[in-house]
Design a protein that fits this description.
Elements: E1 14-25, E2 28-39, E3 45-46, H1 49-63
Antiparallel strand pairs: 1-2, 2-3
The chain binds zinc ion.
Length: 92
């Protein structure tokens, strides 16, 4: 992909940054750090084509429960039905 130097959303300037990304597949999640072009104005993140492809592969692996390239880092939770604020609901 040709590197963009302006944000496609707002036209702001982009800076190369390491950002944290959360990927979800089924009920599973992976967090990772990745290089992205980040808009200084609106915060839009742009990833290179091969990175986007990797994201898709990771989501698919999570969905299919193929964990060979992942390691456990903490645990993820959702809220249970006893949480007193009814405005907060479990994700699954
Ligand atoms: Zn922008």
């Amino acid at each position: 992909m040709t590197p963009l130097n302006k944000c496609p959303v707002c036209g702001g300037d982009l800076s190369k940054k390491n950002v944290e990304k959360l990927l979800r597949g089924g009920a599973n999640t992976v967090t990772l750090k990745v290089e992205a072009e980040v808009c200084n104005h609106c915060g839009e993140r742009l990833y290179s084509e091969d990175v986007v492809k990797s994201f898709e592969e990771i989501r698919l692996k999570l969905k299919k429960q193929e964990f060979e390239h992942f390691r456990v880092l903490g645990k993820s939770f959702t809220i249970n039905e006893e949480w007193p604020n009814r405005g907060i609901q479990p994700t699954a």
